Amino acid sequence: NYILILDQFTTRLLSSCCKMSNLMSEGITIVEDLHKNREPVPEMKAIYFMRPTAMCVDAFINDFKPKPKYKAAYVFFTDYCPDDLFDKMKKNCAKHIKVCKEINISFLPLEAQVSVDSFSFIYTPNSQDKDQTLETIANQIVTLCSTLDEYPGVRYKKDSALDYGNKLAELVDNKLARHYELDDHSKKKGKTQAQLLIVDRALDPVSPILHELTFQAMAYDLIPIKDNNYEYKLKDGSKKEALLNEEDELWVKLRHMHIAEVTGLPKILTCNLMFPIFLPQKTVHVSLAEDLMSHFQKNVEKLCKAEQDLAVGADAEGQKVKDPMRTLLPVLLHPHDTTDKIRAVLLYIFSLNGTTAENLNKLIQHVKIEDESGYILNWKHLGVPILSTPSMFSFRKQPRKDRSDKETYNVSRWTPVIKDIMEDAVENKLEVKDWPYQSECPSVWNGSRAVSARQKHKGSSPDDLRSGSRLILFVLGGVSYSEMRCAYEVTHANKSCEVIIGSTHILTPRGLLEDIYNLDK
Asked: Which GO biological-process labels does this protein carry (predicted)?
């Protein structure tokens, strides 16, 4: 039997993908925190799973000097261990270490198709930590690709206001080349069928700010859910907590459904007892749906029409919004809370690609945030235009797909920009001039049919060849729940290509606004 010793990061990593029972079945009887005081158990062997940092290595050495706490140590690092730390360990406790390995896994798999706080380091003006943060993110992306056994063609969005996407793409591409220079079979690994797109948050500032009405996105926007824990009241008035994660099968079924569909479900669920496995969770989801509907009816419904008109640029009947200020004013005149007004003002500004300084000041006064104008002004640090520029190099918006023939709810007409990009990438329609490859493009995607010449059977269209391929998107600066949903939707619609989306962290509208407000603090 073994003791497992974890740091903060590996605790989060393991709890995101396995349970205590899984560990026990592998012979682990105790799980301990590396940085806490622990009683010595000299008859037991210890497995250390930790990041290769000076703090972790020092804590490890202290376990064996002056007197060993455990019989032996099996050390597993999440990432490459710098030589100086490795030498320090060797010098101090070589005779106690039975195994020392680096297992590339420095990313957090939050959901089956989503992997995730570097926001301030990247976007704070004159940040000293920018380069180091991009370096760390690049390492994490490489470990993800390595875990998936993919060597993707790396692409980035050209001409974004900040050049971070380009920088990150270059770092990732170089690190992937080094990583795959010599793999275990001592031969160089060639590019696989995957594409990796690096997207900057500024590409779509609208999606994380809108009131989104699918179950998961709406819940994390309107209800204080911390660490996926939802607190709800039982009929007798007592409170209970439920964990909303991949283990909860009903949550996985419901999370991407529109609230209108979810609220139609409780009746069906209470009549239909064919799901005994879901019964304990029913009350949780019914309670959550009721919670959300009360928010919706109280104030969100009023906001949604204006928000959708501003975001889409047209009303539910398809009439173009000629004067966005007329759409915004009713929101400003209604006693909505300040955050909701800020969100509407931002959508107004985004719809115009920036506004005049005079107009901006009037809006800030109207919302009464003269002392907190950073909620609006600081978006410029993300490369989002807040003040309109008369220059000919003005910000170009991503052209949108026409989805007017798709049936949607009037309060949910907006589609995240990233969904257009995913669909275009899967169909091989992304323009190389807008989305250049960092180095070579995997032959399957380059249109030259270089691979198909080697296929014996007839009629192998590029679609057949890309079957089973992966599209990995990484959003620098955070990803919203609605964008995560798009990865599932596009995968579901194109059975041939799996879409995986990752980011530095997951955004909620209020959380994002606070992060942006704090950028110049």
From this structure: protein transport; vesicle-mediated transport
Weakest mean pLDDT among 115-124, 289-298, 509-518: 115-124
Q: Which long-range contacts (CB under 8 A, 24 or more apart) does 259-262 make?
A: 259/213, 259/214, 259/215, 259/218, 259/289, 259/292, 259/293, 259/296, 260/213, 260/409, 262/215, 262/289
When pLDDT is cut at 50, 70 and 90, the band that residue 349 belongs to is very high
Q: Which of 215-219, 304-308, 314-318, 439-443 has the lowest mean pLDDT?
A: 439-443
Closest CA to 75 of 64, 66, 84: 64
Give the closest residue to 358 by CA, choosing from 328, 387, 383: 387
Query: Angle at Cα 500 formed by Cα 499 and Cα 503, nearest 5°?
Result: 140
CB 57 within 8 A of CB 89: yes
| Residue found by looking up tokens 């759409």 in the block | 327
Beta strand extents in 189-332 (DSSP E only): 195-200, 229-233, 239-243
Cα separation, 96 vs 435, whole angstroms: 51
SS3 301: helix
Query: In sequence order, what are the residues at sequence separation of 6 or more whose Cβ sits closer than 8 angstroms to the Cβ of residue 359?
Result: none
Q: Which amino acid is at 90?
A: K
Structure tokens at 463: 């679609």
Q: CA-CA distance, 313 to 289, in Å (whole number)?
A: 30
Proportion of the chain above pLDDT 90, given as a percent: 44
Q: What is the per-residue pLDDT across 114-142, written as a single tens digit (0 to 9) for each? A: 444 588 888 988 888 889 889 888 988 88
Which pLDDT score, from 0 to 100, does residue 471 have?
92
Domain of 287 in residue numbering reads as 215-382
Beta bridge partners of 197: 155, 473
CATH of the domain at 220: 1.25.40.60
Find tokens 């971070």 and name the residue.
164
pLDDT (tens digit, 9 = 90+) per residue, 214-242? 999 999 999 999 888 999 887 788 888 88
Query: Among candidates 222, 202, 204, 203, which has minimal Cα distance to 212?
Result: 222
- Among 68, 103, 138, give the residue marking a domain's end: 103
Q: What is the pLDDT of residue 62?
A: 93
Domain boundary pick from 43, 69, 103: 103
Please check whether residue 68 is in contact with residue 48, taking contact to mean a CB–CB distance below 8 angstroms.
Answer: no
At residue 112, the 3 state secondary structure works out as coil
The number of domains in the chain is 3
- The sign of the dihedral angle between the CA atoms of 456, 461, 463, 466 is positive
Is the residue at 407 inside a domain? no
Q: What is the DSSP letter of 214?
A: B
On the CB side of 75, how many CA atoms lie within 13 Å of its CA?
A: 26
First to last CA, the chain: 50
Q: What is the mean pLDDT of residues 58-80?
A: 91
**E strands, 86-225, where?**
97-102, 109-111, 114-115, 153-156, 195-200
299 and 226 within one domain: yes
Confidence of residue 440 (pLDDT cuts 50, 70, 90): confident
